[in-house]
Every structure is written in C-alpha cells, then in structure tokens.
C-alpha cells in the first residue's frame, strides 16, 4: 500500500516538472533535434527512481496476477474446511429434526 502512495507522489512530481513544458510548440525540424535540456543531479535521480519504481510496480502486479500468494491459498483452504464442516453440522441437524418428527 505504501508503494501506491509513493507512486502517486511520483506522478504528481512528474506532472509538476512537465506542466510548463510547451508540448504544442515542439518543432521537429533539424534545429529542434539539436537542442538540450540540462537537469540537475537530484532531478535526474528522481526521474530514474520514478522509472525504476514504476517498472517494479508493474512487475509486482504482473506476478501477483499470475501466481496466487500463500495467504490466498490458505484462505481458500480455510473456506473449504468451513464449508465442509457446516455441511456436516447442517446434515446432522436435519437428521435430528427428521428423527424427532
């Protein structure tokens, strides 16, 4: 859950950094392809961290979808046991009620 909040924070930071970037005014002529953007070390580190965490989150989600974790398996087993126990108890109650009539 913490990674979700971290992910949202990174999205907000990236939005803040790129909101003043004029996407509609970009020219793809030869001079525009030779331009540079200089970023300080903290911004580069932040961007790299954002990219890596986004990849990590995607991989975690992909793995979670493909393989059920042990708590899901144990919870399923517990539910199956409870169902079978309840069936047994209800069966006994129904038999007792039928024999009492």
How would you characterize this protein structure?
The chain is mostly helical and 101 residues long. The protein is 73% helix and 0% strand. The chain has three helices and no strands. Helix 1 (2-18) packs across helix 2 (41-66). The chain is rod-shaped. The two termini are 56 Å apart.
Short description:
With 101 residues, the protein is mostly helical.
What are the defining features of this structure?
mainly alpha, 73% helix, 101 residues
Write the SSE topology:
Blueprint: H1 2-18, H2 41-66, H3 70-100
Specify Rg, calculated over alpha carbons. 29 Å
Low confidence ranges: none
User: Biggest sheet, open or closed, and with what strands and sense?
Assistant: none
Helix count, per DSSP?
3
First-residue to last-residue Cα separation = 56 Å
Tell the overall outline.
rod-shaped
H-E order: HHH
pLDDT average, as an integer? Answer: 77
DSSP strand content: under 5%
Number of strands: 0
Secondary-structure class: mainly alpha
Helix content: over 70%
